[in-house]
Amino acid sequence: MSPRKPAAPALTEPPPVGATLAALRQSRALSLDELSRRAGVSKSMLSQIERAQANPTVAVVWRLANALGVTIAELLGGIDEPAARAVTVMPAHSTPSMRSPDGLCELLILGPIDLAGRFEWYALTVQPGGVLASQAHEPSSREHLTVITGTLDVTAGADTVRLKRGETARYAVDQPHTIHNATRSAATALLAVVHMA
After folding, report:
1. Coil, strand, or helix at residue 112?
2. pLDDT band per the 50, 70, 90 thresholds, residue 13
3. What residue ranges of the chain are covered by domains with CATH 1.10.260.40?
4. Which neighbouring-strand residues pair with 109?
């Protein structure tokens, strides 16, 4: 008869998700509104989690971890992780995304969260008729848009240009600007945003 395995130690209380979430959010200078938008979790739910008034589901923890650029284990209270590897791989399913108000533009957030507000890059898909409209960014900020497939119109201030596959536009975004697909076919592009302090 084989010996019985020792029982796992009982957890007397849940991990301190709220305190860890608040610390991670503040270290990245993210407001509740911004984290809510990135994670797809309501602001009120985030507030309740941070004040330990609600316990998040696994799905919510997964969304928050992805939005903050940490592992689920780190969000659950800093559980010991193996030594850092030289190469980190982000699975496709963990890449966060955003949609434009019209629902026709999708931005896959390729850059790490800790660079947000300084340097950002995205994989952009714009369906026919889709418009990605943005207000002015910081003075001297610029965007770099490279069309991979299809055709896109870029407007910055009073200037509008049409980009075809393989072409790149570099333009000032310290003024209102838009990316528009006026064709009948979907278009894809890479978008880099360089913010200036």
Report:
1. coil
2. low
3. 17-75
4. 122
Orientation angle between helical segments 43-50 and 17-27, nearest 10 degrees = 120
Report, at the CATH architecture level, how domain 95-194 is classified.
Sandwich (2.60)
Sheet holding 142-149, edge to edge: 97-99, 105-109, 119-126, 187-194, 142-149, 168-172
pTM of the model: 0.58
pLDDT at 106: 94
- 177 - beta bridge partners? 134, 156
Average pLDDT (50-59) is: 80
Q: Is the CB of residue 187 less than 8 Å from the CB of residue 149?
A: yes
Rounded to whole angstroms, the Cα distance separating 17 from 54 reads 10
**What average pLDDT does the structure give for the chain?**
84
By the 8 A CB rule, do 33 and 39 touch?
no
Residue 75 has pLDDT above 60, yes or no: yes
Q: Could you tell me which of 166, 103, 147, 108 has the C-alpha nearest to residue 129?
A: 103
CA torsion 63-67-71-73 (nearest 10°) is: -60
- The CATH fold assigned to 17-75 is 434 Repressor (Amino-terminal Domain) (1.10.260)
Other CB atoms within a 10 A radius of the CB of residue 126 amount to: 28
d(CA 24, CA 157): 37
